[in-house]
Amino acid sequence: MEQIGFVSQQDQAAVEQMKQIWRECFQAEEEYLEIYFSTRYRPNETLVYRENGVVLGMLTLFPCIYRAFWNGKLREYNARYLFAVATLPSAQGKQISTKLLAYADKVLQEEGVDLALLAPATSQLYHFYEKRGYRKWFKGRVLSFRNNQKFNDSKVLLKPLSAEEYIQCRNPLLPKDTVLWTNEHLHFADTESRLYHGGLYKLVQDGKCLGLCNLYRYTKDEVIIKELLVEPGIEENRVIEALRGIFHDSVLTVRLPATEQSKQEDTSFFGMIRFYREKEEYPQDTQQAYLSFVLD
Q: pTM of the entire structure?
């Protein structure tokens, strides 16, 4: 017998079964599972698919706001971000994710939510979600460097920030067309990045802030800047070159928002959107919508 619904508050058995799905589908480490399920997991935001009482699939609905242009003005849309959509490998082939997505659609429409967002884990999944009502929407840029500068001649320093400090500095630097996360999500992102030897930082030179970044260092030889926001009037290349100097001993990947100056060939899709309002209520597709580092 199959059943789909939100997890009850005291259902620890479901939590353990979901952890196993995380291990098998996402290769999740135990430290990550401990952090997620102790700080960010919410039963009333987590849908599960069960057969005979056993959890075989899951889908999480995180609240967020999508700030976008509509009729020439900025407007905030009530949104949900779909996270950790997964089916136990031994149960694949039963269209469990499709059933979970259909159930989520029904719930969100009943709640009056404007739209849903997600970031496919692989490029192959874009087609899967397109068949289920999603469209490519959020874009960004990814730069990778393997031969970095040996010295940080610019004397740019990385100053660690608390989540509260990062939030305060970050909001003015965000693109206008962007997803806005709750402080709760940003606190979780801070905790997650610290688990992977990174954190939230301000880039400072001679006491002046050049920008902000969220950094993950999965291994000694691999650094990912999941978000880089540069202060107005500061050249982006200047900041990137400084980061190359700081991490000269690692492969460096930098994620950046798309901008009006971005060449089409330099941008790629980072995420998708599904609308629940009438077409007249759809936001403008600027080709620059920003889906930031949180929970990707």
A: 0.94
Is residue 227 a contact partner of residue 70, using CB atoms and an 8 Å limit?
no
Label the pairing between strands 251-257 and 222-230: parallel
The secondary structure of residue 133, as a DSSP letter, is: T
* Cα gap 160→257, rounded to integer Å: 22
Residue 261 is classified by DSSP as T
Q: In 3-state terms, what secondary structure has residue 200? A: strand
Task: Tell me which residue has tokens 């007249």.
Answer: 280
Length of the chain measured in residues = 296
Which token pair is 30? Answer: 């135990």
Instruction: Dump pLDDT digits (tens) for 25-77.
Output: 999 999 999 999 999 999 999 999 999 999 999 999 999 999 999 999 999 99
Give strand ranges (E) for 114-242: 115-118, 135-145, 157-161, 178-180, 199-205, 208-219, 222-230
Instruction: In whole angstroms, give the CA distance from residue 240 to residue 222.
Output: 16
For 85, counting Cβ atoms within 10 Å of its Cβ (0-12 exposed, 13-18 middle, 19+ buried), the class is buried
